[in-house]
């Protein structure tokens, strides 16, 4: 993407907009004034949020230290503790009886944990971990299912200033081994297993295998009992959680760390290639997590029931399950399992059961529910909902409309939140009480965030134009580096446009100056000299009533340079009645969809071929891995599939191709 061709072409137009209702706007946490406040004094704005939203043991006097750019330090002379901010201070403020976690196991088990109970449990776990020899600064790997102990473990590490490195419970022993090595972790916290898709799935064997590969600094493995399954045991190394945590004292003095003390390392989801160990520190990260969680979701801690479906194994589970909501004193649902266990309405049943008011999920989940049909959510009472959020990929406008109508009852603002593991917290998003939302657009940088779309030469583009999304000023929750590789940090993020952070995503401004994410610049296609966005063509396909989900890639083509190849999943459900069937059904579907894309965005975007599939290759966090589809479209051996959620998907697609 370093050629000098014009930036991305602007293909789709969207005219629908949904202003907040007057009632919602009147009660919203944030008004439009905050944009002005932040423009007038950006650093003052963040200093104010840091003081107002967090409790500091030692107040800071410096807001931003840019003397080591591109390493930026925030609130450097302040001291605080993340776990104290997430739990203890709510108890001290008299809110110990408020429920922090409404936990629902996949097998139907339930736990309600108040802030007072959580404070005691975190203190016990911190004492137990310290008893295993972990000191401030040591790294701890966490490899757990979505059980309350996962959050307790993260906070216990934070309490003693030991950075955690959470590894998604679905990752293999190999992936776990490389992450343990990279972070030089001394302790692994795991479980015998967890429940997924209706069955107990073991975790401990992967830890045993990872450690058997050798070379690690791990001294102990702390094991939570969840499924009760048999586990192999290494005497002297392995310790049951139940043998040490419940007996540990429920008092623990938090370690007051400097604002820049590392809080965690997290490896990116690996959509584009080898995962990077992104590391975050304490004060700035917590400030922006707390602010965005309150502003973007309009959180009212006393009355809302918040639910983010993300696993703690990826960044959304860090910022919007473990830290943001707890720092804000929220009551949140945590669910262990998959959305289709034991039935496809499980999520909606949970919303009905707990009266969830704020719901935050990923486009992949929304599109999967579209595929299953709207009669499934239609069978549940979702009237408690008041704000809906989306994160992880561009949300196609029709998926956004479906989310708003079917889940949100045409009443809830939908906030499409753009951010990354690297940014730590939400960067671009509508504000639900301020912004007239537009289906498919993340719209505006939040107050205090400076983002611009740039052309190849690094000049800002104007309204109606596309290019590269860059962050032009440092922000509190920004990554502080790639663990153990400072040079890679500077090269990866700061070299394309010197002095500015390049996010890797393409984007455009519409005529109102709102931002639309267009996919990763590595995925941009060049067809006969036109630079086309995967997202726009996918959105055109999803706009057809037969299509639930689409993935588009550019495959090399002798005449056009690249040609558009599309993979589509069709929609099920009662509402689809006119899908062609029979012998020529498949061909009729393909011709109709090609014609549809031609009509919606123009002949240049018409896919050369469209393949109907039943699954798409996705990362563990649910993102489409287009590079693998490109391998298929170009008849190459399929590349590295280690971060794929389901390794069998690529075989299925290739078998389908061979038959077609
Ligand atoms: P890797 O960097 O290892 O390839 P990844 O980029 O998928 O993995 P994450 O940090 O989890 O890892 O994801 C951030 C990316 O997800 C963004 O750069 C963007 O491409 C995409 N993304 C997240 N939220 C949105 C959104 N609301 N709209 C569009 N794209 C989004
Ligand atoms: Mg990325």
From TrEMBL:
GO cellular component: cytosol
GO process terms (BP): acetyl-CoA biosynthetic process from acetate
Cofactor(s) demanded: Mg(2+)
InterPro entries in the cross-refs: Ac_CoA_lig, ACAS_N, AMP-bd_C, AMP-bd_C_sf, AMP-binding_CS, AMP-dep_synth/lig_dom, ANL_N_sf
Modified residues (N6-acetyllysine): 623
Family to which this protein belongs: Belongs to the ATP-dependent AMP-binding enzyme family.
Naturally occurring in which organism (per UniProt): Salana multivorans
PANTHER family for this protein: ACETYL-COENZYME A SYNTHETASE, ACETYL-COENZYME A SYNTHETASE 1
Name listed for the protein in its UniProt record: Acetyl-coenzyme A synthetase
Function as written in the Swiss-Prot or TrEMBL entry: Catalyzes the conversion of acetate into acetyl-CoA (AcCoA), an essential intermediate at the junction of anabolic and catabolic pathways. AcsA undergoes a two-step reaction. In the first half reaction, AcsA combines acetate with ATP to form acetyl-adenylate (AcAMP) intermediate. In the second half reaction, it can then transfer the acetyl group from AcAMP to the sulfhydryl group of CoA, forming the product AcCoA.
GO molecular function, one term: AMP binding
Top-rank taxon, per record: Bacteria
Keyword Magnesium: yes
CDD domains: ACS (cd05966)
Record: residues binding Mg(2+): 542, 544, 547
Catalytic function, reaction form: acetate + ATP + CoA = acetyl-CoA + AMP + diphosphate
Ligase keyword on record: yes
Ranges where the AMP-dependent synthetase/ligase domain occurs: 93-483
Name of the gene: acsA
Binding site for ATP: 392-394, 416-421, 505, 520, 531
Domain Acetyl-coenzyme A synthetase N-terminal: 33-86
This enzyme's EC code(s): 6.2.1.1
Ranges of residues in domain AMP-binding enzyme C-terminal: 536-623
Pfam families in alphabetical order: ACAS_N (PF16177), AMP-binding (PF00501), AMP-binding_C (PF13193)
């Amino acid at each position: 993407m370093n050629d000098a061709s014009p930036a991305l072409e602007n293909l789709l137009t969207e005219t629908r907009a949904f202003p907040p209702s007057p009632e919602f706007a009147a009660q919203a946490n944030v008004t439009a004034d905050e944009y002005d406040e932040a423009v007038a004094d950006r650093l003052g704005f963040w200093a104010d949020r840091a003081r107002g939203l967090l409790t500091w043991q030692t107040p800071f006097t410096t807001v931003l230290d840019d003397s080591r750019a591109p390493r930026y330090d925030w609130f450097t002379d302040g001291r605080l503790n993340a776990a104290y901010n997430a739990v203890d201070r709510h108890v001290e403020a008299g809110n110990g009886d408020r429920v922090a976690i409404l936990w629902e196991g996949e097998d139907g088990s339930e736990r309600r944990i108040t802030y007072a109970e959580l404070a005691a449990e975190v203190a016990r776990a911190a004492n137990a971990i310290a008893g295993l020899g972990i000191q401030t600064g040591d790294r701890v790997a966490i490899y757990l299912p979505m059980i309350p102990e996962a959050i307790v473990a993260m906070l216990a590490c934070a309490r003693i200033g030991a950075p955690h490195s959470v590894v998604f419970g679905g990752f293999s022993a190999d992936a776990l081994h490389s992450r343990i090595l990279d972070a030089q972790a001394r302790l692994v916290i795991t479980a015998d297993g967890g429940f997924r898709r209706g069955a107990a799935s073991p975790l401990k064997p992967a830890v045993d295998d990872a450690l058997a590969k050798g070379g690690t600094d791990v001294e102990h493995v702390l094991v939570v009992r969840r499924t009760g399954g048999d586990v192999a045991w290494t005497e002297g190394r392995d310790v049951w959680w139940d043998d040490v945590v419940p007996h540990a004292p429920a008092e623990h003095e938090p370690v007051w760390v400097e604002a820049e003390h590392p809080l965690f390392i997290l490896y990116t989801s690996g959509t584009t290639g080898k995962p990077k160990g992104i590391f975050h520190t304490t004060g700035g990260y917590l400030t922006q997590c707390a602010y965005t969680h309150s502003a973007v979701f309009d959180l009212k801690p006393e009355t809302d029931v918040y639910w983010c479906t993300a696993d703690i194994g990826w960044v959304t589970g860090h910022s919007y399950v473990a830290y943001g909501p707890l720092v804000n004193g929220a009551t949140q649902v945590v669910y262990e399992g998959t959305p289709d266990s034991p039935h496809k309405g499980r999520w909606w049943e949970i919303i009905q059961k707990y009266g969830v008011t704020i719901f935050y999920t990923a486009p992949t989940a929304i599109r999967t529910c579209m595929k299953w049909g709207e009669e499934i959510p239609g069978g549940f009472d979702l009237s408690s909902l008041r704000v809906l959020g989306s994160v992880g990929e561009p949300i196609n406008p029709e998926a956004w409309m479906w989310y708003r109508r079917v889940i949100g009852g045409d009443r809830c603002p939908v906030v499409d939140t753009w951010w990354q593991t690297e940014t730590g917290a939400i960067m671009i998003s509508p504000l639900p009480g301020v912004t007239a939302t537009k289906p498919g657009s993340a719209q505006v940088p939040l107050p205090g965030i400076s983002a611009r779309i740039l052309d190849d030469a690094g000049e800002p583009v104007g309204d109606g134009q596309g290019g590269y999304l860059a962050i032009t000023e440092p922000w509190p929750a920004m990554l502080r580096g790639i663990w153990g590789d400072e040079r890679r940090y500077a090269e990866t993020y700061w070299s394309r446009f010197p002095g500015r952070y390049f996010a890797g995503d393409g984007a455009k401004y519409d005529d109102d100056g709102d931002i639309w994410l267009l996919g990763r610049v590595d995925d941009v296609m060049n067809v006969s000299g036109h630079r086309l966005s995967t997202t726009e063509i996918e959105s055109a396909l999803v706009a057809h009533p037969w299509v639930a989900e689409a993935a588009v890639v550019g495959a090399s083509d002798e005449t056009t340079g690249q040609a558009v190849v599309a993979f589509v999943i069709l929609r099920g459900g009662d509402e689809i009645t006119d899908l062609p069937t029979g012998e020529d059904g498949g061909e009729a579907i393909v011709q109709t969809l090609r014609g549809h894309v031609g009509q919606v965005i123009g002949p240049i975007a018409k896919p050369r071929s469209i393949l109907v599939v039943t699954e798409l290759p996705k990362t563990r966090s649910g993102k489409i891995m287009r590079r693998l589809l490109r391998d298929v479209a170009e008849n190459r051996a399929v590349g590295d599939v280690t971060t794929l959620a389901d390794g069998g998907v690529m075989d299925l697609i290739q078998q389908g191709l061979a038959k077609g």
